Amino acid sequence: MSKRIVLDRIVIEKGDKAARANRRLIDKAGVFAVNLIGAPGCGKTTLLERTIAGLRSARPPVRMGVIEGDVQTTIDRDRILRAGAPAVQIETQGACRLDAAMVAGALAQLQLDELDLLVIENVGNLVCPAEPQLGEHIKVAVIGVPEGDDKPAKYPAVFVRADAVVITKIDLLPYVQFDSERFLRGVEALNHGLRHFRVSCRTGEGLEELARTVEAHAGYLHESGELSVRRRRRLADAAVDDALRPDLGVAEDGRGAHVDLEQPRDVLAVRRLHPQPPAG
Length: 280
Hints:
The structure is a single chain. Helix content is 35%, strand content 17%. The protein has nine helices and nine strands. Helix 1 (3-28) runs parallel beside helix 4 (100-107), helix 2 (44-56) packs parallel to helix 3 (75-83) and helix 2 (44-56) crosses helix 8 (207-217). The two termini are 19 Å apart.
């Protein structure tokens, strides 16, 4: 066995160990964590700004925090702070992706017990961030229509490992060469049944559906659909609003208030929540 292979294995095992530690911390706080992956300029940060606004109007409000990953600057962190959510910036100083150790340092700067949802906006890249686990529950790929409809063919790994894909800037479809059907066929060939969303942060199209889907899953700890005790209590406190929001599927049984994954039917399929990062 070559030294290169041994070194690679050591690095991977170290990363997996850190990811497991992050996941335990996130789960203990009852937070639902998303690893957001997309190329530079695809609209990730703008999407987060609009999502923060949408989740603030939920009943009860979904408390969202963000870890921003960039090679340099705190520009995106500052945007998230102005949008009204707590945020921590990671500057990788040249690294093309975040790793679990970087995320661990950022987690220590957040009040996780005051959050329901954590979004980790990875460094703008469709290659490097696809594989490593950071401790998240799901990976979401973001693709802007100006990037072209051939991305599944050119960058298959991110679509194979994604749990959902968001197509942004759909207001530009009349002006750019992007065949939505071709793109979705490519995605389907790599990851059958992968849920997709089409949104425009400029016009607002599709944002409500996306926000409601995120809302329905914020606070989940495991594939079983269990909500954190804290989140269940907050749902119970807002039970008076259930009659006004029947489509959210809030139910009451032996577990207390919880979101029924069968309602609404179009919510993100929780078929791969990565209960734990790969064993070390």
